[in-house]
């Protein structure tokens, strides 16, 4: 690992990555490599957890193509030196900010959207002019191998390379000195990464998880709300960091909500062993999820198949904060439903848990909208929608508090991998003596005037 990092540091020090055309060419190479290997990428992800070609394109590759297109188009603007005003005190100087790459970066990916969560930060790092080492999650073995193969065949390892491996390899990587670490994964491992980064004062972005609520008010459009909620919850079999984790429904519409949700699950054909329905990534997670299923509280679903690692989309009712399903992020196809009577009660419940990565609100009421946005802190979210905010590259994506720090996508991603170097540039033809020693009451009087900000 030391050798790889040294090679990357040497390459970075040649300043080759500072050339905008170099960066655009690398982005183009990545795009071509992904396009040419779509069949390989699809086969790998299908073998890992039965992700369909439709889902692989819509939730992984298309977002990467979008990011590359946007970055290649906007890079000249984002990487441009920015002139800022200087003020009378420093007349006749000029001031400007130069965006500069940080250096050698480490990107650690999660398994649930293996391509998107690995390559999207890479695109941002390359656009900003860094060299990168990617450590994909070891859980989906085929996708990790496919990414390693594609990167090896298309990139100089001194610029971009993949280190495969599990916890041991990740911990070894974390001991090395990087100029930036970008981690996507659980809050628990996020703390390990943060501690390791502190050893070298390495800046870190942490894209973590948490329990993202959906609040459904009595005056929402129930049919559309449930349709969007069911889609966002059971996409990827609930293994989505921004999936609605649990639902808070107004007591007066509980019955209609439950009936409509059941109807919607059935009409979207989320059924065992069909092409839209993914496996749970491994037996550990399968077991963890099945322990959350309390028979008496299951309103719909609850069937499991240990051989295929499938869990039927499940709705749980009469859930309380004490239930196992509310003790941790679910990250699976189980939807707990909790009722509330006043919006204040719903907000208080959300605020009693760590700040979530996402929050969804289904309502027609603009006063409730305002209240929820003002009183709940969350990474990002949507109103009358789930998950889709991730598809707008103009919205920085990231968590807050326990759900993460920093953000990316679009220009936010560029900024995440960039240092903004501030420079004051002063000519020598004028050099007023007022600030130099010896001081005097008269000079102080002048300084008071000039330094009145
Ligand atoms: P994870 O934290 O178990 O693993 C993530 C990475 O950390 C993997 O590459 C793994 O090799 C490494 N790792 C695991 N244990 C480690 C240890 N002890 N020391 C060092 N490295 C270690 O997370 P996961 O299971 O891959 O993903 C699920 C979690 O990620 C969920 O909490 C989910 O919400 C979150 N997530 C967040 C986002 C986001 O964008 N914010 C996206 C996807 C997933």
UniProtKB/TrEMBL annotation:
Protein name as catalogued: Aldehyde dehydrogenase
A GO CC term attached to the entry: cytoplasm
**Which InterPro entries does this chain map to?**
Ald_DH/histidinol_DH, Ald_DH_C, Ald_DH_CS_CYS, Ald_DH_CS_GLU, Ald_DH_N, Aldehyde_DH_dom, Aldehyde_DH_NAD(P)
- What organism is listed for this UniProt entry? Aequorivita sublithincola (strain DSM 14238 / LMG 21431 / ACAM 643 / 9-3)
Keyword Zinc-finger in the entry? The reply is: no
Domain (Aldehyde dehydrogenase) ranges: 3-423
Record-annotated active site: 207, 241
Q: Which domain of life is it from?
A: Bacteria
Keywords (A to Z) from UniProt: NAD, Oxidoreductase
Which GO MF terms does the UniProt record name?
Answer: aldehyde dehydrogenase (NAD+) activity
GO BP annotations of the record are: aldehyde metabolic process
* Similarity section: Belongs to the aldehyde dehydrogenase family.
